[in-house]
Specification:
By secondary structure, the chain is of the alpha+beta class. The chain has five domains: 115 residues, Nucleotidyltransferase, domain 5; 132 residues, 3-Layer(aba) Sandwich (Rossmann fold), CATH 3.40.50; 112 residues, 2-Layer Sandwich (Nucleotidyltransferase, domain 5), CATH 3.30.420.40; 76 residues, no CATH class; 100 residues, no CATH class. The chain is built from 17 helices and 35 strands. Strands 13, 14, 15, 20, 23, 24, 31, 34 and 35 form a nine-stranded mixed sheet that branches. A six-stranded mixed sheet has the order 3-2-1-4-11-12. The two termini are 41 Å apart.
C-alpha cells in the first residue's frame, strides 16, 4: 500500500485490553488496527499503535503524522486512576459543619439489600477535610465572612499531611463564587505548587453532595490526567505531529487539551462515548433510529439506549467506581462482562466476571501466562474463533492449557463435559448482558421488540446474535468497523462544551427574566470557550432540569424559543413537554403535581467538518465466492461443520444463511441457525433474528 499523501484523521481509543486505532483518509476509506494496551504506560502503547498503523500504510511514523490534520484520543486515565486508587493525595476545604458530605452521600449504597456493605475507599479521609468559618445564604448573600486566618491555618495543616491537590467546596458558591475565588488566591499565595479544583468551576449547580463528590473526584484524578494529556501531546509533537489534538469527553463531544485540563473529571467515563457516537452514525445511515448500542471489549460491556436517533444524557449524576460525578454524560450502563472476564465456580454455581484477565496476562489462549479460563477461551473451545487469524493475524491464539483449565476449574466441579462447560460460559455471559439491557430498557419504559441491537467491540459480534434472540430484538447491526467503532466514532464527534447553572423553584414561581439572564450568561461562557478553541460556527441547545418535589429523578427537557429570549408561554410549554417526556420514558405522569425546576443547562456544539465514509462495491455474485473453508463450531446442542467466510471478500448485497461464521479483521461475526445476514451498502452486517 502506498504511503498516505492526502490529509487524514486518526482516532485512538485506549481500552483495558487493547488500544484501538483507525485512520480515515480524505476519500472516506479507512484502515483499522489494534495493539495491546500497556497499562503502566498507555501513552507509549498508543505511540506504538501509531507506528504499527504507519507500517500498514507503508510510511514511517513521521510521514504518517505529517499527513494527519486531526487526532482524537479517548483515554481511560481518569477511570484507571479511580479503579487503581492511584490519584493525588487530596484535601478538602469546605464550609464549617459540612466536611462529611462525601461520607453521608445521601445514605446511598449501591446494594440496597446489603446493610453491611462497606463504604468505598476514601478519596479524602476525614483528617484531610477541614471546615472553614464562612457562609452564604441560598441567594448568595454573605452571612459569615470568610475567615482568612482559619483558612491559612488549614492550608498549613494540609501541607503537613503532604496533600497534593485541594478541593474547595463552599456552600452556595455556585450562586456567588466570591469566597471560593478568594480562597483560591490564598492557596496560591501559601502553596504555589498545589493543584486545586473549585466547585463553582467544576460544577456550578446544586446539590451539595453531588457538587462535593464531583469536585473531589476532579481533584483526585486531575493531576494524573493533566500529566497524561501533556505527556501524550508532547510525544506526538516530538514525533512530527503538527495538527489538532482533541480529547473525547463523557458528554459525547470533543475538546482540546487546554479545555479538558481545566476540568479533567469530564473525561471520566468517556471511553464508551465515542462508541455511542459511532453507533448513531452507522445506524442512521442504515435507517435505524431505535436501538441498543452494545460495546463488548476485553474487560467490560457498555450498553446505551438510543431512541429517535438520540442518546439520552444522564445529567443527574453517574456513579463511576462508587463515586458520583454529576456532570452531563451519555447514559451508558456498564457491566463486568468482556472477552477477558474470568469464569469460576462459586458456591457450586458457574460465575462469569466481574474479575477480568485484562491485557496482561490476558486469557489463557493469549499465551502470556494467564491461568484462569475466560470468555475468549470458551469462544475458542466452541470453535467461534480461528486461532491463526485472531487480531487480524497479528498474533495467534494458543490452545495449550485452555481445555485443561476449563476442565479443571469449571467442568469437573460442576460435573460437565468440556463442551458443556464452555457453552455454559458463553450462555452465562450472554445472559448477564441481556439482563443488563432488559433492566435498562424496562426502567425507561421501552418495548424491546421495537429495537435493534448495534454490536461493536471485538467480542460483541461473537455474542450479539444470541443476545438478540434472548431479548426478542428484531435485528442485529454489526458495523464494518465494529472492532474500533469507538475510535471511529470519535472522529465524528463535535467540539462540545456544557454549561450548568442552578435555579431551584416551583414552576409557578419561576421568574422568566432570571431564566433568560442565566441562559444569556451560559451562552456567553460557552461561546467564549468554543471561540478560544477556534471552532465556529456552533449550535446552542438549551435544557431545563425538571422533576417532582421529593423525587431525585430529573429530566433534561429541551427548551425551545422563537428568539434568544424565552417567553412565559414558552416556559409553560417546557413543563408540558416534561410531562410528555416523563410519560414516554417511565410510563407514568402526575399532571396535577406542580413540577420543580432544579437547574438550567446549555450545550454548545462546534459544527466541525467530518469525514464521509465511502460506500462499498455491490456484489456481482453470491457469497460463496467469499467462502474460505469450513470449521467445527458449537451451535444449539452440539458441534457442526459450518462455512467460514472472509469478511474482506464480501460485498454489498451478499447474503449468508446461518449457521455460519464471518471472519473480519480483529473480530468474528457468528450467525446462528435460523438467522440470515446481509451486507449493506457500507459493508455492515444486518442479521435478521428469528
Amino acid at each position: 500500500m502506498s504511503p498516505v499523501r492526502s490529509r487524514a484523521r486518526i482516532g485512538i481509543d485506549v481500552g483495558g485490553t487493547f488500544t484501538d486505532l483507525v485512520l480515515v483518509r480524505s476519500d472516506g476509506s479507512f484502515v483499522l488496527d489494534k495493539t495491546p494496551t500497556i497499562s503502566t504506560d498507555p501513552a507509549t502503547g498508543a505511540i506504538r499503535g501509531l507506528e504499527q498503523l504507519a507500517a500498514r500504510e507503508g510510511s514511517s511514523l513521521r510521514e504518517l503524522l505529517a499527513a494527519v490534520d486531526t487526532i482524537v484520543h479517548g483515554t481511560t486515565t481518569a477511570d484507571d486512576t479511580l479503579i487503581t486508587q492511584s490519584g493525588a493525595v487530596v484535601g478538602l476545604l469546605t464550609t464549617q459543619g459540612h466536611r462529611d458530605e462525601i461520607e453521608l452521600r445521601r445514605g446511598f449504597k449501591e446494594d440496597v439489600w446489603d446493610s453491611a456493605q462497606p463504604p468505598p475507599f476514601a478519596l479524602c479521609p476525614r483528617r484531610r477535610r477541614i471546615g472553614i468559618p464562612e457562609r452564604l445564604d441560598f441567594q448568595g448573600n454573605v452571612v459569615i465572612s470568610l475567615d482568612e486566618t482559619a483558612l491559612r491555618n488549614a492550608i498549613q495543616r494540609l501541607k503537613k499531611q503532604r496533600v497534593e491537590s485541594v478541593a474547595l467546596v463552599f456552600l452556595f458558591s455556585f450562586v456567588n463564587p466570591a469566597h471560593e475565588k478568594r480562597a483560591a488566591e490564598i492557596v496560591r499565595e501559601e502553596w504555589p505548587e498545589a493543584a486545586f479544583s473549585l466547585s463553582h468551576e467544576v460544577m456550578p449547580a446544586a446539590s451539595e453532595f453531588e457538587r462535593t463528590s464531583t469536585t473531589l473526584v476532579d481533584a483526585y484524578v486531575g493531576p494524573r490526567v493533566r500529566r497524561y494529556l501533556e505527556h501524550f501531546e508532547e510525544r506526538l509533537r516530538d514525533a512530527g505531529f503538527r495538527g489538532r489534538l482533541l480529547w473525547m469527553q463523557a458528554n459525547g463531544g470533543v475538546m482540546t487539551t487546554d479545555h479538558v485540563a481545566r476540568r479533567p473529571v469530564q473525561v471520566l467515563g468517556s471511553g464508551p462515548a465515542g462508541g455511542v457516537v459511532g453507533a448513531r452514525l452507522v445506524a442512521s445511515l442504515a435507517g435505524i433510529d431505535g436501538f441498543v448500542a452494545i460495546d463488548m471489549g476485553g474487560t467490560r460491556c457498555d450498553a446505551c439506549l438510543v431512541r429517535d436517533g438520540a442518546a439520552q444524557l444522564r445529567s443527574g449524576g453517574s456513579w463511576r467506581h462508587r463515586y458520583l460525578t454529576a456532570l452531563p454524560a451519555l447514559d451508558v450502563e456498564s457491566i463486568g462482562a468482556g472477552g477477558g472476564s474470568i469464569a469460576y465456580v462459586l458456591a457450586g454455581a458457574l460465575t462469569v466476571g466481574a474479575k477480568s484477565a485484562g491485557a496482561d496476562p490476558g486469557p489463557i489462549c493469549y499465551g502470556k501466562g494467564g491461568t484462569e479460563p475466560t470468555v475468549t477461551d470458551a469462544d475458542l473451545v466452541l470453535g467461534y474463533l480461528d486461532p491463526g487469524s485472531f487480531g487480524g493475524g497479528s498474533f495467534a491464539l494458543r490452545r495449550d492449557g485452555v481445555e485443561e483449565a476449563i476442565l479443571e476449574r469449571i467442568a469437573r466441579p460442576l460435573g460437565l463435559s468440556l463442551d458443556k462447560a464452555a457453552q455454559g460460559i458463553f450462555r452465562l455471559v450472554n445472559a448477564s448482558m441481556a439482563y443488563a439491557i432488559r433492566r435498562m430498557c424496562a426502567g425507561r419504559g421501552v418495548n424491546l421488540g421495537d429495537l435493534a441491537l448495534v454490536a461493536y467491540g471485538s467480542c460483541a459480534p461473537v455474542h450479539a446474535s444470541m443476545q438478540a434472540e434472548e431479548l426478542g430484538l428484531r435485528e442485529v447491526l454489526v458495523p464494518k468497523g465494529a472492532p474500533v467503532l469507538s475510535a471511529l466514532g470519535m472522529l465524528f464527534a463535535d467540539p462540545l462544551t456544557d454549561e450548568l447553572r442552578s435555579y431551584i423553584a416551583p414552576a409557578k414561581q419561576i421568574l422568566v427574566d432570571r431564566v433568560n439572564m442565566l441562559f444569556s450568561e451560559m451562552e456567553a461562557s460557552a461561546t467564549a470557550a468554543l471561540a478560544s478553541e477556534g471552532t465556529v460556527p456552533f449550535r446552542i441547545e438549551r435544557y431545563a432540569q425538571v422533576g417532582y418535589l421529593d423525587q431525585r429523578l430529573e429530566i433534561a427537557v429541551p427548551v425551545s424559543a422563537t428568539n434568544s429570549r424565552l417567553t412565559a408561554g414558552e416556559l409553560e410549554a417546557t413543563f408540558e413537554h416534561f410531562h410528555r417526556m416523563r410519560e414516554k420514558m417511565l410510563g407514568n405522569v402526575t399532571r396535577d403535581e406542580e413540577p420543580i425546576l432544579f437547574g438550567l443547562r446549555m450545550r454548545a456544539l462546534g459544527l466541525s467538518r467530518k469525514p464521509e465514509l465511502t460506500r462499498g462495491a455491490h456484489a456481482r455474485g453470491t457469497a460463496s465466492a467469499a467462502r474460505r473453508g469450513k470449521r467445527r463450531a458449537y451451535f444449539e446442542d452440539g458441534f457442526a461443520t459450518v462455512p467460514v467466510y472472509e469478511g474482506s471478500a464480501l460485498r454489498a448485497g451478499h447474503r449468508i444463511k446461518g449457521p455460519a461464521i464471518v471472519e473480519e479483521a480483529f473480530t468474528t461475526v457468528v450467525v446462528h441457525p435460523g438467522q440470515r445476514a446481509e451486507v449493506d451498502a457500507r459493508g455492515n452486517y444486518r442479521i435478521a433474528v428469528r
